[in-house]
Every structure is written in C-alpha cells, then in structure tokens.
Amino acid sequence: MAASSCCGVLPVGSVVSRRGRVNSSFGTSNYVSPLKRDLIKFRVRSVAEDDEVKEPAAAAPKPTPPPPKPKVSTSFFDVLAFSGPAPERINGRLAMIGFVAAMGVEIANGQDIFSQVQNGGLPWFLGTSALLSLASLIPMFKGVTAESKSGDLMTSDAEIWNGRFAMLGLVALAFTEYVKGGALV
C-alpha cells in the first residue's frame, strides 16, 4: 500500500474557506491579514511508504563458533561448598541407595530402619557412604560435571530430583516407623 501525506500550514487563529481564503466571519479578534505568497515560501514534502522495504543483499553469514565452556573449579572448597556441586548430589545418591536398601531389607526380613542399623547395618552404611562419596568426588575434582554426562533419558536434573525425593522418602520412612513402633511392611 502506497500512501502519501502532505501537510499545509495556516496562520494561527484563522479559518480558511473552501476557496482558500481567510474567513473573517468569526470576529475581528480571529482575523489575520492574508499573507503575500512572495514573502513567505513554504515547502511541503510528500513521503510514500511501501509495504516491502528492500534491504541490500548481505553476504552469507559466517557461522558463529560455540561459546566457550565455563571453566569448572576443582578446588576442594569450591566443590564441597554449601552451594557447590557435591553436597546435594552425594547426599541424593546416598539417599537413593539407602531408601532402596532399607525397603529391600524391610520386605525381606521385616526389620525396621532402626533395627537394621542396630543389627550390623552401621558398617554397611559407613562403607557405602565412603565408596559413593569418593566415586562422586573424583570426577568433580577432575573437572567433569554431571551436566556434561547427561543423556536424553538420564539427565542431571532428574538425578537431583530423584535424590531429593529419596531423601524425603527416607526421612518419612524413619518417621513413620518411629511413630508406628515397628516396620512399615
């Protein structure tokens, strides 16, 4: 759609008739004497706007290189910091193993969590905790992140959420067995 606009300028307070003359019927206070065309020249410009704006053809864009990977800190205090990658991931992994083991022994022997720990489960707990902690910390100290090893099915976010649910499940299982006074199953 091509449109053009033009603009006219009138003296302030005057009314123009259809013939282009100043109308003085509104009183003398609104009357402005007609201007001579030779004294003042006005320029009126008209601009047409097109729907399509043609841009000059640009050269083929160069592919952008991938952004550099952020360097992962391998400092002991950075890895084990409160907001670092290790604490929640290790606790989640331990909770997943602990919840499955506690439920498995409870179903097999009928023992609650507290009797499992009292009847020789403490060395197993400490050994499993040490082994899983070392297995989790060694790659972190080498700079390998869980996000870099994530796949389509098993993502690092899914591991974090499963660990959180396992922590809640383990605490809920212990609390329920304490209140009930015996095994859940």
Give a written overview of the molecule:
By secondary structure, the chain is mainly alpha-helical. The protein has two domains: 51 residues, no CATH class; 105 residues, no CATH class. 44% of the residues lie in helices and 2% in strands. The protein has four helices and two strands. Strand 1 and strand 2 form a beta hairpin. Helix 2 runs antiparallel to helix 3 and helix 2 crosses helix 4. It starts with 14 loop residues before the first strand and ends in a 5-residue tail after the last helix.
**Main sheet specs:** 2 strands, antiparallel
In total, the number of strands is 2
Question: Based on helices, strands and strand pairing, what is the structural class?
Answer: mainly alpha
> What's the multimeric state?
single chain
Residue-averaged pLDDT, rounded?
74
Total helices: the number is 4
Question: How many domains make up the coordinates?
Answer: 2
Strand content: under 5%
> How far apart are the termini?
78 Å
Could you list the spans in which at least 5 consecutive residues all have pLDDT below 50?
1-18
Taking all Cα atoms into account, the compactness measure Rg is 41 Å
Helix content: 40-55%
What is the H-and-E element order?
EEHHHH
Give the neighbour order of strands across the main sheet: 1-2
Shape: elongated
Short recap of the structure:
The chain is mostly helical. 44% of the residues lie in helices and 2% in strands. It has a two-stranded antiparallel sheet with strand order 1-2.
Sequence-ordered SSE layout with sheet pairings:
Elements: E1 15-16, E2 22-23, H1 76-79, H2 86-109, H3 113-141, H4 156-180
Antiparallel strand pairs: 1-2
Subcellular location: Membrane
Membrane topology: Multi-pass membrane protein
Organism: Handroanthus impetiginosus
